[in-house]
Amino acid sequence: MADMNDALRAARVAGAAGVGRCALSLCLLLAAEAFPQGVIETISKSFAGRGGAGPGAVVGIVVFFGVIIGLLIFFYVGSRRSQEKIQEELSAKLFGEGCERTRLTRDEMNALLGIVAFAPDPPTRGHLIFESLPLYERCLDAYVEHTPRLQFSSGRGGGVEEQDELLLRLRKKLGYAILSPEQPVVSTRNLSVGQKMSVFAPGQRSDPFSANVTHVGEFWFTVRLQEDFMGLVSLGGLEKTLAFLRQGDAAYSVTVKVREISQSGEINFYHSTRLSRNQHRQYMRLDIDLAVKFRVIERANSFDDRLPNELLSAHTADISGGGVCLIVKEPLRVGDVIMLSIYIPGCAINDVRAKILKVIAVEGRTATHYRHLVQFISIEPQQREKIVKYIFDKHRASLQKR
């Protein structure tokens, strides 16, 4: 009985081996048909010259490595798809949490989904729309440009006014309605009403026209000229260049398309995200009263080596990542070097070397005090980051109260 089982087992193995040989032979035949005969003969001769195998063995080796490469590609593509699926699910989860956190209505969420569709890799990056103003503005610009204007007037989704109000509510809920001072202007949608600017026309050689912003919508914004606008109209052109200075930030210029010019001297422009920024300040200042301790370590006059030994007290009028404005009872000298400690909530910035750039006497009701413009000349990067972060948090908190 055992001999019979062994015989049957051997027959099954032989049959499987025969099937395997047939399958391998079929693969070899198909591969041989796929490869040019000249290539196979060349490889065969190379092997034969070394005492190697013939064409069949060469084709077998080629098929073997081809199968290996195919399997690697298959597993790689499968792994990439799996990772993309995981990223899409995570992004969708974060997007949903962002909608709940900002309390978006169904209409607002649908509008945001339409905007997110224009993001790079929207399935995996859609949630970043809640964190990135530049991404939001670029996507919104593309959304408005590619959305047929006829749908707004045909009743599908409401008219332009309703859509403008919807997008404005969405902007406010996302926290992009008011731009903090440390955030550069990304789009003309970030302009504020009352912003003064200069308007140039193509080919204009005379002085620019003065204007100010009177309306900022999601589809266009309006500028009112402060002088005779017919001179600007006579210059023609469908595009105008606007230049403006944002206080405490930078000088900007942008070329925008004209939508409409009214008889009252107002011009409607389509929005643009292609702004040019220059003359920017490196650090933003925050007006705040903080306690400061300092000691004079170098005198501006090298012939006077007398230094006060005591630790002096002062307070700040403002602070930035590059320096402070100190209020001191007794004046120091321009060029003096001091070692100071600044006490911000939660930590102290110690042993910062700074230089007095300017001293201004301020007459008070009872006494005179002195404002000292001080520049940091030696400060640790971590200390500067703490100051910048503190300023950023204070600005954000003040904007949330508006």
Quick synopsis:
With 402 residues, the protein is α+β, with helices and mostly antiparallel strands.
Describe the 3D structure.
The protein folds into 4 domains: 2-73, no CATH class; 102-174, no CATH class; 188-278, Pnp Oxidase, Chain A; 286-400, Thrombin, subunit H, CATH 2.40.10.220. It is 41% helix and 27% strand. The chain is built from 10 helices and 14 strands. The protein has helices at residues 2-34, 37-49, 55-101, 106-116, 122-125, 133-146, 150-153, 160-174, 230-234, 381-400, and strands at residues 196-200, 209-216, 220-225, 239-246, 250-261, 266-270, 276-278, 286-287, 291-298, 312-319, 323-328, 337-344, 347-363, 368-378. Strands 1-2-3-6-5-4 form a 6-stranded antiparallel barrel. The longest helix is centred in the N-terminal third of the chain and has 47 residues, at 55-101.
What is the correct CATH architecture of the largest domain? Beta Barrel
- The span between the termini is 94 Å
The first-level CATH class name of the largest domain: Mainly Beta
Mean pLDDT: 78
Query: What is the tally of helical segments?
Result: 10
Q: Using the alpha-carbon principal axes, give the shape.
A: extended
Order of helices and strands: HHHHHHHHEEEHEEEEEEEEEEEH
The helix content, as a percent range, equals: 40-55%
Q: Which fold name corresponds to the CATH topology of the largest domain?
A: Thrombin, subunit H
Structural class call reads: alpha+beta
CATH superfamily caption of the largest domain: predicted glycosyltransferase like domains
Work out the count of structural domains: 4
Query: In terms of quaternary structure, what is this?
Result: single chain
Widest sheet: strand order? 1-2-3-6-5-4
Tell me the total number of β-strands.
14
